[in-house]
Design a protein that fits this description.
This protein is of the alpha+beta class and 855 residues long. Helix 9 runs parallel beside helix 11 and helix 26 runs antiparallel to helix 27 (844-854). The longest helix is centred in the middle third of the chain and has 20 residues, at 335-354. The structure holds (3S)-3-amino-4-(1H-indol-3-yl)butanoic acid (HT7) and zinc ion. Zinc ion binds next to helix 3. The site of zinc ion (ZN) has 4 residues, from helix 3. Belongs to the peptidase M1 family.
Length: 855
């Protein structure tokens, strides 16, 4: 497959200011007539090139006349039309079979409805068009379909006309007044019910809101609707951004390659990010609904009104929009807990990506298949870059920067550089060196040491930064790293103020006067920069910070570091006493002033995968054994506390308030430790929670805890769960996921069995992710020394590639981490990558991921 390079960007030869689309919709045979007004862009005589993936032109017309054979021809992947003059009308007709579209890109069928997914390059599977994001067009769309089968016909913009046709057909016309790139086009033809509501914007306009789902799912849409209205109000209040159409529709579909899609005025969602009720959704699911609804809504400005010039600029919309949705969710709940959760996700997904063969900059230089670049680096690290800019500017100057960005680029396709320039001008800051965050891949390391001179009463903080080579980038320049620090007086438990230091040199020292005694360092408070900090702080210092640090993230981090030191030390044969950790946990769980949600985060053991990331070479068995032992010890030492917390946090009634969610989180942690303690009645208590819970958060947590063990309750609970929820796809996903994620010696065999289960299907990406996605995140099971885990995943990739290459390619990266493991495991992982690459007809998506993973 050919490589696309950022440096090859050229403005388009032809623009398409207007497009009319006419759809005769039918699952087996859909006809699409497209009428494009095209205008020559610049002084050249190059033909008009229209991308078309798998399309055959049934008609080509120019200015209403059938085009002659010398006027057009097909080449691999596009239709070339020779045109004279500066403005012409070009018409094409194609036929599609949406019911046979298993890639879920373009126009496809899902659960009896027809819908589209065009980002990144799906529009070329619907009609001939220059499929690139810098071509902005006004869309006029007519949809025609059988009325009984598809009573609802939706597209972008506002509805302008509708009517009845012959033979039971009806039609609807939608016009979108905002010029948009074709990746934001969408249509839905369906028989769905609507949760209808409205929102009055800050300028007093009334917007009709609709969430469209299967009739039976209507009671599960309330949380999504509330999230939408909260998002609309938040974007007005925080960014001054108002919604701009008369309607805003959301449609939930069962088969979707991603979380959701921000099509203008018609968001299409994976149903898992719309539907929520206490019986079937966990608190994490509720938060997911809120966050994704907000994310897609916020794209209306950061992505739609200002879009991307080319796909190398993807983080322009995704990083910024993740930053916006993270802050929205923090405002809706707890800032401290949200930050801890976001950093945990960043470390688990993005730090791993940054340290492996698929590492790439936030603004990549090249790709083979753009779908492979919807990564944690583009999204989550991209958001961290915006967060650092916001931190350096402060709220007023950051808002001045975003105002300038939106005003200057409204209606345009912009670049990351345009964003940075707006921040520099609006925020009055020089970001020259900061730009390296967009250019250089990899996670910087910062080594921090403190020395204290009692004579001068001065403390010196010495910082040393380094950035390891990544693919294609052997040499790195120093980054501009904003670090929030505080120096604590161990005698008083207070500090002299929080300071923002800018580390810009490879080595830099900062002096602090007036310290009679050596202080304790709290650094990267709030996780001010996405870096790895290495310090020589003692267990005593960390214990102090876990009791006294007034920055919740730093306090959590001190707890984590205490635990990491014990576990990594033990694996390396250097036992460290665990008393400090047990004391720290005791202190946190008995402090009545702390938010239970924070407590649950603070006492959480680092995951096996995170522990692996702290080691030069990952030893999955040793990590597992050490972690289990520490969990058991903490469980046993504090057993009465876990029992008390578990009993105390039981709520008579369900509520989705932050307090209720926090109580459930802590309750589930207590149950985990209680069962890990080995208490005889542990499984029985978990089973009672499983049976009596009035919500899925407690039920699934109890199931997961039981699934890690070998009790009779394990088997019973899994059976009950399946029988109770087997008919609901989203909840059945949890049954697959819980077993694939179980920390149990038989998991690898169980996953093999579940892959043959009658309810398992490769056609539904959620089901694939629930089984194989969860399994690859289960370090101990996936990296089973037999190599069976690798083989299972490779088999799945090969089978899925024939149906849905995008989803198949997303399973490849875990196999690419072979350098991090021992020689035996590494060879087995490489062997599977080689087997994948040997498959004839392998997709571009999987080829790119597997070949890069072998390097
Ligand atoms: N902007 C959307 C990206 C997306 C996507 C990308 C590749 C293949 C399928 C996809 N569906 C949606 C989602 C978002 O970030 O909001
Ligand atoms: Zn997005």
């Amino acid at each position: 497959p050919s490589v696309i390079r950022r440096s090859d960007y050229r403005p388009p030869d032809w623009l398409v200011p207007d497009i009319a689309l006419d759809f005769d919709l039918d699952p087996a045979r859909t006809r699409v007539r497209a009428t494009l007004i095209v205008t020559r862009n610049g002084d050249h005589d190059r033909p008009l090139r229209l991308d078309g993936d798998g399309l055959i032109p049934l008609e080509v017309r120019i200015d209403g006349e059938a085009a002659t054979p010398d006027q057009w021809h097909m080449e691999a992947g596009y239709l070339s039309v020779s045109l004279s003059g500066s403005a012409r009308k070009v018409e094409t007709l194609v036929e599609l079979a949406p019911e046979s579209n298993s890639k879920l890109m373009g126009l496809y069928a899902s659960g009896g409805l027809l819908c589209t997914q065009c980002e990144a390059e799906g529009f070329r599977r619907i009609t001939f068009f220059p499929d690139r994001p810098d071509i902005l067009s006004r869309y006029d769309v007519t949809l025609r379909a059988d009325k009984a089968r598809f009573p609802i016909l939706l597209s972008n913009g506002d509805p302008v006309e509708q009517g009845e046709g012959d033979a039971g057909q009806h039609w609807a016309r939608w016009v979108d007044p905002f010029p948009k790139p074709c990746y934001l086009f969408a249509l839905v033809a369906a028989d769905l019910a609507c949760n209808a509501d409205s929102f009055v914007t800050m300028s007093g306009r009334d917007v009709q809101l609709g969430i469209w789902v299967r009739e039976a799912d209507l009671p599960r849409t309330g949380h999504a609707m509330q999230a939408l209205k909260n998002s609309m109000a938040w974007d007005e209040r925080v960014y001054g951004r108002e919604y701009d159409l008369d309607v805003f529709n959301i449609v939930a579909v069962a088969d979707f390659n991603f979380g959701a899609m921000e099509n203008k005025g018609l968001n299409i969602f994976n149903s898992r990010y719309i539907l929520a009720d206490p019986e079937t959704a966990t608190d994490i699911d509720y938060d997911g609904v809120e966050g994704v609804v907000a994310h897609e809504y916020f794209h209306n400005w950061s992505g739609n009104r200002v879009t991307c010039r080319d796909w190398f600029q993807l983080s322009l919309k995704e990083g910024f929009t993740v930053f916006r949705d993270q802050n929205f969710s923090a405002d809706m709940g707890s800032h401290a807990v949200k930050r801890i959760e976001d950093v945990r996700i960043l470390r688990a997904a993005q730090f791993q990506e940054d340290s492996g063969p698929l590492a790439h900059p936030v603004r990549p230089e090249s790709y083979m298949e753009i779908s492979n670049f919807y990564t944690a680096t583009i999204y989550n690290k991209g958001a961290e870059l915006i967060r650092m800019i916001a931190l350096m500017l402060g709220p007023e100057r950051f808002r001045a920067g975003t105002d300038l960005y939106f005003d200057r680029h409204d209606g345009q396709a912009a670049t990351c550089e345009d964003f940075v320039l707006a921040m520099e001008e609006g925020g009055e800051i020089d970001l020259s060196q900061f730009r390296r965050w967009y250019e250089q891949a990899g996670t910087p390391h910062v080594r921090a040491t403190l020395d204290h001179d009692p004579m001068t009463r001065t403390v010196n903080l010495h910082l040393h930064q380094s950035l390891a080579p990544t693919p294609g980038q052997p040499d790195k320049a120093p980054m501009a790293i904003p670090l929030r620090v505080a120096l604590f007086d161990p005698a008083t438990g207070t500090h002299h103020g929080d300071e923002l230091l800018m580390l810009t040199e490879p080595q830099q020292s900062f002096s602090f006067p007036d310290f009679a005694t050596p202080p304790i360092l709290s650094i990267n408070r709030g996780f001010s920069a996405p870096v790895i900090i290495d310090t020589n702080r003692s267990q005593d210092d960390l214990a102090f910070l876990s009791a006294h640090d007034d920055d919740p993230f730093a306090r959590y981090e001190a707890m984590q570091q205490l635990m990491v030191n014990i576990l990594v030390g033990r694996i390396a044969g250097q036992p460290i006493d665990e008393a400090a950790v047990i004391a720290a946990i005791r202190q946190v769980i008995t402090d009545p002033l702390l938010d239970p949600a924070f407590v649950a985060e603070a006492i959480r053991l680092p995951s096996e995968a995170y522990l692996g990331d702290q080691m030069a070479h990952v030893d999955p068995d040793a990590i597992h054994a050490a972690r289990e032992a520490l969990q058991q010890r903490i469980g046993a030492e504090l057993e009465p506390d876990w029992r008390a917390i578990h009993a105390r946090t039981r709520a008579a009634e369900f509520s989705i308030s932050a307090a209720a969610k926090g109580a459930r989180k802590l309750r589930n942690s207590a149950l985990g430790y209680l069962v890990a303690s080995g208490a005889m009645d542990g499984p029985a208590i978990a089973f009672v929670q499983f049976e009596q819970a009035h919500n899925m958060t407690e039920r699934q947590a109890a199931l997961a805890i039981l699934a890690n063990g070998d009790s009779a309750e394990r088997v019973a609970a899994l059976d009950i769960f399946y029988n109770r929820y087997g008919a609901d796809a989203l909840t059945l996903d949890k049954w697959f996921q819980t077993q694939a994620f179980a920390v149990h010696p038989d998991t690898v065999d169980l996953v093999e069995e579940l892959g043959r289960h009658k309810d398992f299907t490769l056609a539904n990406p959620n089901r694939v992710r629930a089984l194989y996605g969860a399994f690859t995140g289960n370090q101990w099971a996936f990296h089973h020394i037999s190599g069976k885990g690798y083989r299972l995943v490779a088999d799945c990739i090969l089978a899925l590639d024939r149906l849905n290459p995008q989803t198949a390619a997303r399973l490849v990266p875990p196999l690419g981490r072979w350098k991090r493991f021992d020689a035996a495991r590494g060879a087995l992982m490489r062997g599977e990558l080689e087997r994948i690459l040997a498959q004839p007809g392998l997709s571009k998506d999987v080829t790119e991921q597997a070949s890069k993973s072998l390097e």
